[in-house]
Every structure is written in structure tokens, then in C-alpha cells.
Amino acid sequence: MVTLTRSYGERVLKNSAVMLVQCPDQKGLDAAIADFIFQHDGNILHFEQHQAGEERFYLARVEWDLSGFQLPLDHFPEKFTPVAKKFGMHWGVALTSYRPRVAVFVSKYDHCLVDLLYRQRNGELACEIPLIISNHEDVRRHADFHGVPYHVIPVSKGTKREAEVAQQRLLGEHKIDLIVLARYMQILSPEFIANFPQRIINIHHSFLPAFIGAKPHQQAYDRGVKILGATAHYVTEVLDDGPIIEQGVVRISHKDGLDDLVEKGRDLEKVVLSRAVRWHIENRILLYANKTVIFE
Amino acid sequence: MVTLTRSYGERVLKNSAVMLVQCPDQKGLDAAIADFIFQHDGNILHFEQHQAGEERFYLARVEWDLSGFQLPLDHFPEKFTPVAKKFGMHWGVALTSYRPRVAVFVSKYDHCLVDLLYRQRNGELACEIPLIISNHEDVRRHADFHGVPYHVIPVSKGTKREAEVAQQRLLGEHKIDLIVLARYMQILSPEFIANFPQRIINIHHSFLPAFIGAKPHQQAYDRGVKILGATAHYVTEVLDDGPIIEQGVVRISHKDGLDDLVEKGRDLEKVVLSRAVRWHIENRILLYANKTVIFE
Amino acid sequence: MVTLTRSYGERVLKNSAVMLVQCPDQKGLDAAIADFIFQHDGNILHFEQHQAGEERFYLARVEWDLSGFQLPLDHFPEKFTPVAKKFGMHWGVALTSYRPRVAVFVSKYDHCLVDLLYRQRNGELACEIPLIISNHEDVRRHADFHGVPYHVIPVSKGTKREAEVAQQRLLGEHKIDLIVLARYMQILSPEFIANFPQRIINIHHSFLPAFIGAKPHQQAYDRGVKILGATAHYVTEVLDDGPIIEQGVVRISHKDGLDDLVEKGRDLEKVVLSRAVRWHIENRILLYANKTVIFE
Amino acid sequence: MVTLTRSYGERVLKNSAVMLVQCPDQKGLDAAIADFIFQHDGNILHFEQHQAGEERFYLARVEWDLSGFQLPLDHFPEKFTPVAKKFGMHWGVALTSYRPRVAVFVSKYDHCLVDLLYRQRNGELACEIPLIISNHEDVRRHADFHGVPYHVIPVSKGTKREAEVAQQRLLGEHKIDLIVLARYMQILSPEFIANFPQRIINIHHSFLPAFIGAKPHQQAYDRGVKILGATAHYVTEVLDDGPIIEQGVVRISHKDGLDDLVEKGRDLEKVVLSRAVRWHIENRILLYANKTVIFE
Questions:
Q1: Under 8 Å between Cβ of A139 and A156
Q2: Contacts of D291 in chain C (CB under 8 A)
Q3: Confidence at residue D12, expressed as pLDDT on a 0 to 100 scale
Q4: Most buried by CB count within 10 Å: which residue of C3, C39, C161, D80?
């Protein structure tokens, strides 16, 4: 129940901690959490609480200043567990100073990769990117420019399992917290996905659930829609059906050919994907009923 | 091939004519049209031409000033037909001063009806609304306020054919040019639809083709999308599959319950539907390959 | 310091209370508030806390369920005051079941008035509208349709003071909580404004601070902007300088004449103004440093 | 009057020509242009004509296929001049195959530069970028990555004139058609600007005319606006007053600090600037009354 794993980052490194909590709603939850932090001399910076569903399931995100906080984070689980048990909380806490380790998967389209690397370098994304995995050589020069190791693991029908084994070995070696599929054009196996629950983010170049599957731009063009979409979502076993984290749209018209859709889509995909990644690494996302709750 | 039917309207009544043309592309098309108008002393106000598809199908909209134009519109077809035949044009011409006759169909939700009546009254929609047809009494007071006859024709499983006969009699009596389904909750029969090709506009409260069919807000809520849509389209025999005229979107979040979706959807549906109706009555829409070309 | 005045409304009338709090930040604030509510057997439905400025000023909104709450709201101030005093809180509490009393001021443009009345009638705006005040007869029929008393108080240079006296008498008689200037084209005197601090909302038809003052659409047209804006703000003594509550925009192009700007502006103004009014009557707005904090 | 200068580019290099025309409106303009092209066996691909102002000034863009066109573009001016003189046209024609030569000016913020280089490399911007000029060394590595010469010309109060002389020498040597100020933080002298009329595009990080001058993000933050803007415009002698080419906006809230505004602004500035540059190099912009007409 207790996971002291992923952490929270911001441009200016704050000396703070973040706790995410979910459980059935009961009286006294906010008081119990706020009291616990106060009793150990913490100053709460943000407290946001939401209730979901008809049964009003409780979901909360609390961030507090660690200066003067009397409880070392190492001892936090031990002390907080009695409180958590009393309310049946599912919870996790993380340090702002920890930078999650992100692996980017990419194929031939480089726009999302280039964008993620740029944002990571300028501090917008408070994470490490220790490696990039691709099934092609094509975009290596961007990895080289940013000094990120670039691993090519080709994938063909017969070698998929073997490729995934190699990928998972690398992910393990680099202690990867999050996998970002930045227009990676291979479908991962259910076994692979099961190893990274709520830890794989994909960008789909349509307004899901419209245009599920292959060639969404072609589908959008053929249907004559007036608005183009992009969707960042967690990857689950069912294709393009995982919890949606973020979506964006842009207007198109009859003047836009398929090439224009691709170009307009690029700008959209970059922004939507980077926002989803950011929310994840800043511990702003909770899941409830296959939907995301975003504490912006 | 020649139809001297629907017309063009604007806030300030212009003394102008609009021609819509489509045909396979050939050299000399623009010159032939522009020359014809110039030879009869017309001054072209707007000329916009688009090419669609890989074969570059020609689609154009031309509006010209009628002051000083030497050819009465009555004689236009006779004189222009030789030009049109030479190029194999499918065309139509209309007077700005003609106000299309629009029938609004409505059930119990009144927001689109109220909006259309308001826009028609203040001059945004240059059309007549000689009647409203509903399967319920509920929204009559808005019709009364604006002095528009309100006809209740109940529809049940057994009486659908009979109801449609009554509806079509009214539409015929009032020489209706366009039917607007302003959240009308009955599905029209293929026979009815066939009588009004490209002359029925519907508003669907989702971002088509996502959430086709009933209860799109519930579907959107259950899927956890981050953006809500609305779609105005021409009605064809296949449900929610007709050419899309306009779409709009609004952001939603986990904080929005189903009620909020309904409320946010209302604002969207009004704007999207009224824009589609306006483009239609101002002769700004051409169809090609089940898609619309909008000459804004 | 204690005001038990305005209240909180929602579509489904909830039996809940809302507290807004602001004060210098200190440790223990969240705990103190959450504890107080818990000790009286209240169940917190929403807790959102924000910190503003470099000194991290504390701003919070708390809503809790009153079923089972052991403290009658009448006695709330007496009991809560010691807590408030300890932290130097500026605070207020309101019942969801109280519907604020709103006076709408209007001149000749009726679109915002019509929109507000419609939203109030369908339950989107949980308020009473006991009267409309205008300096013209023009839009009376909409008031009549909704059965709202419509008072005409003409305003000319010489009669402004006298007119304001008459207006304030009406406002007092009807115990008005909030004044909404729905395209009211007269400038209120500083004395009038001083009587309703943070209780007058205006809609300005531009993206403030661009195009301050008269004829913003003309100014926008002359400058050739590509985006049109609208701004809802609290009225203060300095023209168009009060705290901004909400803004909206719509794209325009060289094809849009001044008339088109007016039409596109209407759709914008309605949505922006109604959102601001809603947030106000639902007690979702706090002020800090001439800026608004919106607890959506 | 005749300028056979800038050209037109697209992803797939089309063998076409583009003509931009403006003059007082008269009957027969469209016919004269379309006839001229038809007589020389050209097939018009796009014809769009707009009328501006109360006097209905004529503005048009025509693009035609050059396959089979009987008039070499070298001889075009000679042949077309009689037509142009008759109507008093101000006009220009350009080949699609010509790629305008663009100089990018930059200071320390690299996001717009990186974006422009990326779009030029992937074909979205059909231009050459033969050089980058900066007053700082900071962003040289991006120029190196793309293999574009990077010239540092420091600017201080005393050396401004001298620096501009050096800049203009480089621009002349490289036959630069267009200067793009990609967050270049120096103000150019009126003399410099006069040498490049309608040939310098700047990105201003606000919704002009709001927040003219220095530190627009700080100004926006202090005013508490709810929407952040960016504006691409031609540079004229009056600061931030040139014709607006494109604007974009993004929502912000009280949760966004100044740093967030800077980050959200970056995404906006990139998209807005690149769109303006593209329209310029594709000959889609005409000027009328200090405003732009965009033939999208």
C-alpha cells in the first residue's frame, strides 16, 4: 500500500513533498492529513481535494514545505501508516528533489522526441532522460545533440518478443520510472504493458475515441471533420482505450490536405504529450474508474 | 442542372447575386465566369475558387453587384446555360434579396430554438422562419413570444409514418427551403430524408464521429474525454454520417459532472448550429465526396 | 470581519455551506479549518487552497455537507471567531440554499440580458433576479416575457446624480447582493461604486487592457487585430481597471467588417459575463492584489 | 510598380506562379486577370479576391499551373504591364520554385530560432536560411547543429549604428529577402527599418496592443489577465505598431506564476511566428490601411 517512489519536480527546485491519496470518503479525512503534517511542523503549500463518482470517492493531493518538517521522509511511511490504515487510504509520497527517470520510445517521426528533449533541457520537465529506444536509426542525431544514449532495437513480426526482452533489460538497468511513447509505431505486448501499470504514456494523433487504430489522419481527412485532435493517454491492454490524460484540438478546413493535417497535428501532439508527461512526473494524476483526475 | 432556388442574405441587404459552381477542372473556367459577368456589366464583389481531391475538382463561389447588371436574373439561366454546358458545370444562382424559408424542428430542449429565433430577429440569420414543428408542447412559449406558428405533431412508434406525412404537408404549404433539427429527438425516415437532399441540418451533441448515436454526453463522460464537442451536419440516411458542416469544442475536466457537460454543451450547440444554418442560407456550402467546402 | 451574507448555489440544491478564507500564511491553517468542521461532524466536500504572491498569502475555499453538521449556521460565527482571530483570517460563510439577489442593468443591447435571464430560468444561475434597471425602454419585452419588473430610469448629463439616487433606492428596497452591468452604457459615479465594493460586475467588449474606453470594437477593427476579446471584471473607480474575473476570445480575419465584430462579440460577451456571474454567486472568487483567484 | 521578387513555396514543389494584385476596384478586374492567364494557356489553381474598406479596394491572389503556360515568367512583366496600367494595379508575381532567403535575428531565448530551423529542415517552411545574426554567443550550438552560419554582432549603446552597418553588409552579401526577429531584444533604428519595408517580421510576446513595450509578461501578470497572447507583426518605425500578421492566445489562471507565463508563452510564440513567416514566404499577405489581408 505504501510506495515511496515517484517524485515531484518543478523549475525552481522546491524543498517539498507531495502526497497523493485516494480512498472511500469519510468524515475527518482532510483533518487527519492536515493535522498529521501540522503536528510534524510542516507548512502545507497546496491542498486540493476532489470527490468522484456517485459514491463520492475521495481523491487528494497535498504538497508541503519540508523546511522545518520534523519527520524525515524515510520515516514517513512508518508514522503515517496508522492514519492510512484507519481510513483505508491508497497513498504515496514523493520528494520534489527526486527527478523521475524517463525512457522515450520513438520510431521515425522525431517531433515529439525533439520537443521532449528541448523541454527537459530548459527545465520545463523536471526529469532525467537516461535513454532513448527506437526501432530505427533515423532520429539518432537529435539524441546525439542532447547527449542521450540512443539504443536501436529493431522489431519485426518474428522478433517482437525478443525485442521486448532487450527493451526491458535496458529499462531495468536504467531504473526507469516512466516510458513515453513519442510516436513509437509498434504495439507493445500485454505482458510488457502489465509490467508498467500507469507508467506508459502514449500520444495518439486523433481525438480519441474518434479514429481509433491506424492512420487516424487519413480517417479524419476522409470523414471531413473540421477539427483535428490529439490524445495523450496511459497505455492499457486494449488498444487506444487507456485513461485519457490530456487532449488538444486545432481547426482544419477543406483547404487542408492530408499533408496539412500531418503538419498541424505535429504542433498539437508535442504540446499535448509534453503536458501529460509533466503532470505525471509532478505527481498530479490520480486514476478513478478508468479516468484521470488532474490536480493542475 | 439549373436551379434558381435558394438565395443569399446578409445583415445589410445587398443588391447582389451569388453563383455556386462545381465541375471537373479545365483551363478557362475562371475566365469564362468572370467574363460572363463583366460582359453584362456586373461588378464582382467576391470570387473564391477551390480545388478538391486528387483530380482537382473545381468548386467556386462568385458574388457580384447587381446595380448596373444588364441581365435580369430571370434570364440568367437562359444566357448562362451555354457557358455551363461547355464546361459541364453543376451550378445555381440566387438573389441576395431572397430570404430562404426555414422550418425548425424541436423536441423538449429549447436552447437551440431560442438561439435561432433570437438571431433571426436581430438580423444575423437572413431567413424567414414561417413555422416550428415539435413532437411536444413544452417549448411553445418561445414560439409565441416571437410570433411564430408552433405545430405539435406527436410521434410514437405506431404513428411515425402518419406524423411525417403531416409534417411534409406543412413543409409543402409553407414552401420550406431548409429544415433545421434543433435538438429534435426523433429519427426521420429515409423516405423523408430523400425528399430534402442537402436541405436538412442537424446538431449532434458530440464531436462526430466520436460518440455516434444516443446519449453522447453520457458516452463522453464515461470515456473521460478532456474536450467536449458538437457537430452540425447535413442529414443523410446513415445515422450521424452526413457531411459535417461545422464543429466546435470546449474543455472539460474531472470536475465536470454529467450536468456540467449538458450545460457546457448547450453553449456549444447553439453556436455551432447557428453558424451552419447561416452558411447554408448564405449559399456558402458546396459538397464534394461527402465533405463540405465552406466559402466563409 | 464576519459576514454571513452571500451564498452558494448549484443546479441541484445541495445542503451545504461554503467558507472563503484569506490571511497571511502560517502553519496549521488547513488543519485548523478541517478540524473545526470535523469536530462539528461536517463532511468536507471540496477543499482547495492556493498561495499567492511572493509572501505566499493564504487563500482557501471549503465546502462541507450540512447533513449531520452539529453547528447551526447562525451560531457558526460565534464559534469560529476564536479560530479566525488566532490566524488573523478574513473570512465569510454562506449557505448553498441562499440564492443571491441580482439586479441587472441594461441599456439598448439586449443579448447579455436575454442570456442571463435564460440561464437563471433554466437553473444554471442559482440566483434571484428581482429587477432590471435600464435607461431606455427598448428591451422591456424580454423582462416582461420572464416576468421580471423592468424599471426605466433615464440618465442625462444633468440628471445623473438624481438617477443614481433612484437606482440605489430600488437596490436597497430589493436587498440586492450583486449588480450586473449587462452592456449598460452609463458610467457609474465613484460614490455609487463605493457603495458596492466587489459587488458590481461589468462586461467590457474587448480583451482588456487592450482597447480601454469607448468603442472597443471600432478600435480593434482599426488596429487590425486577428483575435477579438471580451472581459468580465469587478467595477472600481478607475475605468476598465477593476480585477478581471474572466476573459474570452474569438478569431477574426480581414473578412470581418465592423458588423461581424459586433456579432462575434455578442456570443463572446454572453458566455464570459455569465461565467463571471456564476462564479460570484457560487462564492468561487477571492481578491488578492487587484487580481482574482477563481476556485473553479 | 513591377517587382519580380519574392516567391512561393510549398512542401511539394509545385510548378506554379503566384500573382498578388491590389488596386481601386473596377468592373472587369477578375475577368482581365483570368483572361490573361487563360490566353497564355495557364490553368488557375487558386483565385481569391477580397474587397477592403468602404471604397471597396480590390485585393487578389492568383496561383496558376505553369505546365503548358506559354509565357516564360521573364517575359511576364512586359506582357502584363499593359493590363496592369489600364487598371492602375500594384502587383507582383513570383515562382513557386524560388525559395526566399531568410535571415533570423536572435538574442538569448532560443525557442523561436530552434522552431524555425526545425520547420525549415522538415520542409514546412519553403525558404533558405543562409545566416543567423545574434548579439550574443548563447545559442550558437543550435545553428551549428543545423549547419547554419552564426554571426555574432554585439550591440551596445555606443555601437548600435556600427552594428547595424555590419548587419546590413551581411544581409546584402546573402541577398536576404526577409528578416525574422526571433525574440531579438534590440530595437532597430528607423534607418534600418526603412531599408526593409514589409520585410521584417517580429514576434511580440503579448496580445498587442495590450502590453506594448518591455516586459509584456510582467505586465500581463500584474494586470491579472486570464488569457496570454503573442503577436507576429511587420516592423515599422513606431514600436509594436506595425501591421499585425497573426496572433495566438492561451488560457492562464491565478495558479500561473511569472515563470509559467514564460513557459506557456514559448509554445505560443513559436506557432504564431512560424505561421506568419510561412504566409509571408508563400506570398499570402497583402497590406491595406496598416492591416494585413491573409490569403490562407
A1: no
A2: 223-224, 254
A3: 52
A4: D80
* Closest alpha carbon to C244 in C269, C276, C267: C276
Q: Among the ranges A144-148, C52-56, D211-215, which has the highest mean pLDDT value? A: A144-148
pLDDT tier, D11 (very low <50, low <70, confident <90, very high otherwise): very low
Catalytic residue among C144, C240, C256, C259: C240
Closest residue on chain A to D115 (Cα):
A115
Rounded distance between C-alpha atoms, residue B171 and residue C213, angstroms: 49
Question: A150-171 in b/e burial notation, b at 16+ Cβ within 10 A?
Answer: beebebeeeeeeebbebbeebb
Region A211-216: what's the mean pLDDT?
92
Contacts (Cβ under 8 Å, ≥6 apart) of A159 = none
List pLDDT tens digits, range C220-248.
999 999 999 999 999 999 989 999 999 99
Comparing CA positions, the residue from D28, D26, D177 lying closest to residue D101 is D177
pLDDT in tens, B206-254: 999 999 989 999 999 999 999 999 999 999 999 899 999 999 999 999 9
Residue B112 one-letter amino acid: C
The H or E element containing residue B234 is strand B227-234
Fold of B101-294: Rossmann fold (3.40.50)
Query: Helix, strand, coil % (nearest 5) of chain A?
Result: 35, 30, 40
E-assigned strand segments in chain C:
2-3, 16-23, 43-52, 57-65, 90-95, 101-106, 128-134, 150-152, 178-181, 200-204, 227-234, 244-251, 285-288, 291-294
CA–CA gap between residue D283 and residue B30 (Å, rounded): 21
DSSP state of C158: G
What average pLDDT does chain B have? 93
List CB contacts of A236: < 8 A, sequence separation 6 or more: A193, A242, A243
Contacts of A259 in chain D (CB under 8 A): 11-12
What does DSSP say about strands B178-181 and B200-204: parallel, antiparallel, or unpaired?
A: parallel
pLDDT tens digit sequence for B194-203: 999 999 999 9
Q: B14 pLDDT band (50/70/90 cuts)? A: confident
Helical ranges in chain A per DSSP H: 29-39, 76-87, 111-121, 140-146, 160-173, 190-194, 216-223, 258-281
Whether pTM exceeds 0.90:
yes
> Residues B124-156: pLDDT tens digits?
999 999 999 999 999 999 999 999 999 999 999
Task: Identify the architecture of domain D4-95 in CATH.
Answer: 2-Layer Sandwich (3.30)
Alpha-carbon span B293 to D107, nearest angstrom? 43
Amino acid at B234: Y
Scanning B27-66 for CB atoms below 8 A from D yields: 27-31, 34-35, 37-38, 41-51, 56, 60
Phi, psi at residue A248, to the nearest 5°? -140, 160
- The complex scores an ipTM of 0.92
Q: What distance in Å separates residue D241's CA from the closest CA in chain B?
A: 28
Q: What are the residue ranges spanned by the domains of chain C?
A: 4-95, 101-294
* Residue B5 pLDDT exceeds 50: no
CA C48, CA C50: separation in Å to the nearest integer? 7
Domains A4-95 and A101-294 share a fold: no
pLDDT band (50, 70, 90) for residue C53: confident
- Give dist(CA A171, CA A173) in Å, integer: 6
Strand order in the sheet with D178-181: D150-152, D128-134, D101-106, D178-181, D200-204, D227-234, D244-251
Query: Nearest 5°: CA angle at C264, between C262 and C268?
Result: 110
Q: Which residues of C touch B296 (CB under 8 A)?
A: 255
Q: How far apart are the first and last CA of chain B?
A: 25
Rounded mean pLDDT, B94-120: 96
Query: Is D90 in contact with D6 (CB distance < 8 Å)?
Result: no
